[in-house]
Amino acid sequence: MAEFSLIDRIRQRAGSRPDVALGIGDDAALIDPPKGQQLVLAVDTLVEGVHFARGVPPSAIGWKALAVNLSDLAAMGAEPAVALLALTLPDDDSAFVDEFAAGFAALADTHRVALVGGDTTRGPLAASVTVMGYVPKGSALTRAGASAGDDLWITGTLGDAAGALALWTSGLPMLRTGRLRDRLDRPTPRLGAGIALRGLATACIDISDGFLADLGHLLAMSGLGADVEADALPASPALLEAFPDPLLRRELQLTGGDDYELCFSAPVARREAVRKALDAVATPASRVGSLVAGARLRLFDADRLPLPLPARRGYVHFAGSDA
Amino acid sequence: MAEFSLIDRIRQRAGSRPDVALGIGDDAALIDPPKGQQLVLAVDTLVEGVHFARGVPPSAIGWKALAVNLSDLAAMGAEPAVALLALTLPDDDSAFVDEFAAGFAALADTHRVALVGGDTTRGPLAASVTVMGYVPKGSALTRAGASAGDDLWITGTLGDAAGALALWTSGLPMLRTGRLRDRLDRPTPRLGAGIALRGLATACIDISDGFLADLGHLLAMSGLGADVEADALPASPALLEAFPDPLLRRELQLTGGDDYELCFSAPVARREAVRKALDAVATPASRVGSLVAGARLRLFDADRLPLPLPARRGYVHFAGSDA
Questions:
Q1: What mean pLDDT do residues A178-202 have?
Q2: Mode of pairing for the β-strands spanning B225-229 and B151-155
Q3: CA nearest A93 in B: which residue?
Q4: How do the domains of chain A map onto residue ranges?
Q5: What percentage of chain A exceeds 90 in pLDDT?
Q6: Hey, how many other C-beta atoms are within 10 angstroms of the C-beta on A316?
Q7: What is the three-class DSSP state of B54?
Q8: Terminal alpha carbon distance of chain B
Q9: Which of A65, A84, B135, B316 has a CA that sits 20 to 30 A from residue B176's CA?
Q10: pLDDT in the model for residue A295
Q11: Does position A319 have pLDDT exceeding 80, yes or no?
Q12: Does domain A151-314 have CATH number 3.90.650.10?
């Protein structure tokens, strides 16, 4: 091990890109940014016992540490390029690092992301990842920019990860949680959808803290309110099967978090264009409501009858989190 | 506190730059990179109990978390631009965050670094910082590129931080360690020197793990050896006073680490140019030896008599660290 440090193990899986002039191995990496593009930068940390439970497979931690960051780039409409990893480990566990790196690399390779910086330190298990991507100047999606009257959309389905967590903490056998658990452990960042929505979405955010919580951020930044049809929130067959009670299921979808789907607004006139753009990248999407003037958020059922807002709107950040 | 999260407290001190199109507050930051420049990226983590002791002032932790990263940019000859901070805290301690942010901002403001990404999570105290800077295409300094016969140089003085740590762990009163302690807690990244050395230094590295350990990295990447005159290693008046024993002092200078000085090579013919360039940025520098062919590192005293190499060459990384 003395001649083959943990960082060297990670470096084996770093990948390469033509814009990376110098990768891991010097004091810093050197990147040639493409012309006409803005850089898009985000950082997120996963801590054992807070963001994932003890016993989650190292490969899933590696995958998710990158996925939650790529999801931030997706929400900006960015194309990912490079990542830097700060991995803190309680001991010199090369098997853990190999599995972590394999999970990280599986997702990185899918999206041609090169790992250009790595730092391994001793301490309680945590992984902090910084990602950088590119977006043509002026075409980034942001949380601001929505207009009253815009449709409100959601990619994919909501509630699976929260459902897996609920089942898992209730002690149910893994057998039942399989498909849901995969959404919790290995979320799929909606990168193709984010890029497809450039020029179409007026505002966008990824759902990490829970639909209502993240929608709240979008509304605050856009200075608007929303009318949401709760029964229109998309649910997977696995969620429908595991949670037949509609009230419990709705709670998971509204406040559960860890979905890593995109929540975005688009003009009513672009409804068909949105549909086509997302079809082209094989991303399902549902219209779930409308943006309205004023700072109010209202929930309705399928009969347009008002529903109470849940007391708890989403995962309560210990200390807030951004970018 | 509910309406004013920890990340908002940090955001107050984020600073601004014309190349930052969108800072903290969305899913990611947007940067307009300057034309003709390469991007320089590095990440480093400080963990309580590993990189700093319990009881170090929060402002010093904030300063140092940025400083160790800026030192990596200095070693590349880069000009810093933006930073992203992932801060992990055991509890919701707003006073800690305010002091941490003040220390971070004091250094960031000095070098016009904007904080464009922040993530605060709960967990054992740690700060992971990613920095991005710029360097004109093709002019970055790297660890490779030195030639046999080149002079070996060191900026500033060595051993102060290691001396402070030695005195502190031995239980000496703070009074004696003051000036040394400041080097340990608030290191000065040699950014001006790094930029001044563009086109002059043939290879460069910052001294974080200890002079011999980091020189070893430079030699390995350049495929060379070195003859070093141990008595030429620069010592501060504070170190000379606190450690009158030359053998102990030399040990601190050779292997102590946490110096954040630059160790670089330059052609003999550029000796005066190096001197002038560093004088212009008020950075003292000393010639401490020469690079030689072959993979050997030899130490000499002032009379050119060979000295034994210390058994321990520097801070032994738990798991390796790079970029």
A1: 95
A2: unpaired
A3: B319
A4: 3-136, 151-314
A5: 78
A6: 12
A7: coil
A8: 36
A9: B316
A10: 84
A11: no
A12: yes
Residue bearing the bigger pLDDT, B172 or A32? A32
Cα distance from N-terminal residue to C-terminal residue, chain A = 36
CATH of domain A3-136: 3.30.1330.10
Beta sheet of A285-292, edge-to-edge order: A203-206, A262-266, A151-155, A285-292, A225-229, A297-300, A306-307
Distance from CA of B119 to the nearest CA of A (A): 5
How far apart are the CA of A127 and the nearest CA of chain B, in angstroms?
10
Of the candidates B125, B114, B41, which has an alpha carbon nearest to the alpha carbon of residue B322? B41
CA-CA distance, A150 to A155, in Å (whole number)?
A: 16
Q: Choose the closest CB to B32 out of A38, A42, A121.
A: A38
Q: Which residues of A56-73 are buried (b: 16+ CB within 10 A; e: fewer)?
A: bebbbbbbbbbbbbbbbb
pLDDT of residue B2 exceeding 60:
no
Asked if residue B224 has pLDDT above 50, the reply is yes
Which run of H or E residues covers position A219? helix A211-222
Q: What is the mean pLDDT of chain B?
A: 91
Q: Is the minimum CB–CB distance between A7 and chain B shorter than 8 Å?
A: yes
Dig out the tokens for A178 from the structure.
Answer: 């399989």
Note whether A81 contacts B: Cβ–Cβ < 8 A: no
Q: Which of A44, A132, A143 sits opposite B119 (nearest CB)?
A: A44
Picking from B261, B43, B321, B39, the residue whose alpha carbon sits closest to that of residue A22 is B39
Q: What is the CA angle B300-B306-B310, rounded to 5?
A: 80
What number is the average pLDDT over the span A91-114? 94
User: Is B26 in Cβ contact with A76 (below 8 Å)?
Assistant: yes
pTM recorded for the entire structure: 0.93
Sheet order of strands, B37-47 included = A20-22, A29-31, B37-47, B126-136, B79-89, B114-122, A321-322
| Cβ–Cβ below 8 Å for B44 and A119 | yes
Q: Please tell me the distance in Å from B141's CA to the nearest CA on chain A.
A: 9
pLDDT for position A54: 85
- Residues 6 or more apart whose CB falls under 8 angstroms from that of A150 comprise A202, A203, A265, A266, A267, A268, A290, A291
Count Cα atoms within 13 angstroms, Cβ side, for A317.
Answer: 24
* Chain B CA closest to residue A262: B27
Measured between beta carbons, the chain A residues lying within 8 angstroms of B197 are none
**Mutant choice from A4, A5, A26 vs B, greatest count of B C-beta within 10 A:** A26
pLDDT band at B177 (very low <50, low <70, confident <90, very high): low
Cα distance between residue A159 and residue A203, in whole Å: 22
Task: Strand B297-300: give its sheet, edge to edge.
Answer: B203-206, B262-266, B151-155, B285-292, B225-229, B297-300, B306-307
In chain B, residues 134-173 whose CB comes closer than 8 Å to chain A = 135, 137, 140, 142-144
B206: pLDDT strictly greater than 50: yes
Residue B317 clears pLDDT 50, i.e. is over it:
no
Are the beta carbons of B158 and B210 closer than 8 angstroms?
no
The distance of Cα A191 from the centroid of its chain, to the nearest Å, equals 9
- Closest chain A residue to the Cα of B46, Cα to Cα: A121
Residues of chain A contacting residue B23, judged by C-beta atoms under 8 Å apart: 323
In this predicted structure, the answer to whether residue A316 has a pLDDT above a threshold of 60 is no
Q: Is A221 on the interface with B (CB under 8 A)?
A: yes
Q: What stretch of H or E contains B100?
A: helix B94-110
The distance from CA B221 to its chain's CA centroid, rounded to whole angstroms, is 19
Class of residue B174 by CB neighbours under 10 A (exposed 0-12, middle 13-18, buried 19+): exposed
* Letter string b/e over residues B64-84, b meaning 16 or more CB atoms within 10 A of that residue's CB: bbbbbbbbbbbbbbbbbbbbb
Contact B29 A21 (CB under 8 A): no
